[in-house]
# Entry
Amino acid sequence: MDAAERMHSALDKLGISDIHVIIAGSAVMQAVLGEAWDGSDMDMWATAAEFPNIQADLVKAGYALSRHVPIDDSSAYVRMSATIYCIHEFLAKDKPLVQVITVKTDSALKAVDTFDITACQVYYVPSQRLIAAASPDAWKALLKRQIVFSESSLKKQAPMEWIRTLKRVCKYLKRGFVIEDAQWARMLTAVSEHGGEPQWVQSGNRHGQAAGVRFVYTPQDGFNFITR
# Structure
């Protein structure tokens, strides 16, 4: 079974194999790698106009809308607010969490290449049973299990937004991905250029500070955050 067939099978079990969305992120990454990760949700991307039909399909499959998370232009969502209207969370008994992210662009595909981690920039189109990537670099990073920060995040992401990115980094490190020191250096430079005050100590562990949030990473414990 190839990756597209694995995605179709997963959606078929949920009763939504023909849903008209773009699915991107960890669900597709697992299908490509042939793995299953505990606690993984499913992110669906669509325009605001498409949302009512998507909600109807999910409700028909046994899901219920749990909450809306509007995305504003506060310091925590500077980069994301340019692309995303809202995150809608759907729950169903014994099924994974589904997040439907509505976008401001005329196509959900345009949002994929703005993801902060390049390996996440892979997507599945249910109507075509197609898996593709935003760029060759995304395929390369995923297949080599490398964490590479995207140009979009490095150029546009505010210091506070890096908290979410670092939590995702920790998650993927636990899933067997790797990150080179050069990527840490690029991140800290980007934080500095956007008004943060990063600090770096190379002593076996990794430490940094961004916009009043101190983060410490160790291979054993992952990231810990202390907000001043």
Remarks:
- The longest strand covers residues 84-91.
- Residues 198-213 have pLDDT under 50 and may be disordered.
